[in-house]
Amino acid sequence: MKLSDAEWTLMHVLWERSPASARDVLEATEAETGWAYSTVKTMLDRLVDKSALRARKRANTLLYEPAVTRDAARGTAVRALLEKAFDGTLGSLVHHMLSEERLSRRERARLRELLDEHDRRGGA
Amino acid sequence: MKLSDAEWTLMHVLWERSPASARDVLEATEAETGWAYSTVKTMLDRLVDKSALRARKRANTLLYEPAVTRDAARGTAVRALLEKAFDGTLGSLVHHMLSEERLSRRERARLRELLDEHDRRGGA
DNA sequence: CGCACCCTGTTACAGATGTAGTAGATTCTG
DNA sequence: CAGAATCTACTACATCTGTAACAGGGTGCG
After folding, report:
1. CA distance B105 to chain A (A)
2. Are B102 and B110 spatial neighbours (Cβ–Cβ below 8 Å)?
3. Which range is least confidently modeled, A19-23, B16-20, B86-90?
4. Nearest CA to B91 among A107, A61, A17?
5. Looking at the predicted structure, is the pLDDT value of residue A102 above 80?
6. Which residues contact B8 (CB under 8 A, 6 or more apart)?
7. Which of the 68-107 residues on chain B come under 7 Å of nucleic strand D at their beta carbon?
8. Which of A27, A32, B63, B68 has the fewest Cβ atoms surrounding its Cβ within 10 A?
9. pTM of the model
10. What's the pLDDT tens digit per position in A79-95?
């Protein structure tokens, strides 16, 4: 379930509002990408081949909708990044973010809040 | 400075010990990948084209060494992930990790330590 | 009903990636 | 020195990705 850069753009549209036709998706991405209708159509069909989307025919038009959740796709992407660029552990990514990505004090505070929340609602 | 999956494998070798010849790199990756010598050579040369590596000729052999640091490459990869799969902010990635990636209580504690440490050594 | 329009499905093509063979230059070794 | 072992440089080829044109079928408006 590896998605390419352009494919992520389309998936985000479908995660926001689905089912949607190729034209719907085109309209949602046109300003940002300038893609031709056929470009969008090709990519949508490739996503169906990959089973990232499902398509249903409604009259003569295909309506697309996600076959995977955004969180699942994100999880796959994060784990792929960990494998190729880090040592496979989330810890090393977190460490990198803290030492290299310059989280602001505000972001650190927010992170702590999230941690506290997760501690409260259990979880091993 | 976008690196492909296979390229990351080679870069990790060079970050560990450089300069190194194509054969050195082959030997370091052979067990894990089963690549042919010429495969490694091709990829190393492509990395030089991309300016991810530099090569110096020593006698009749090219010795390769990183032209970018591991942290810089990781930073590029993390930011690319944020752009394509998240909303561009580190916060949303952190949020994802906390809610989806099942950090253990132990990992959460470790993260808090890192946060405290970063608060202490300044940083906005 | 006919025409304009939209949709699908097919085909195309260049660049990146994964993977590797081969020719010719160079160097070690006996 | 001659042969073996190495190296580099070039070439090759399938697949994936980004991008799109085009042909032919369905459909709604006048």
Report:
1. 6
2. no
3. B86-90
4. A107
5. no
6. A84, A85
7. none
8. A32
9. 0.90
10. 999 999 999 988 889 88
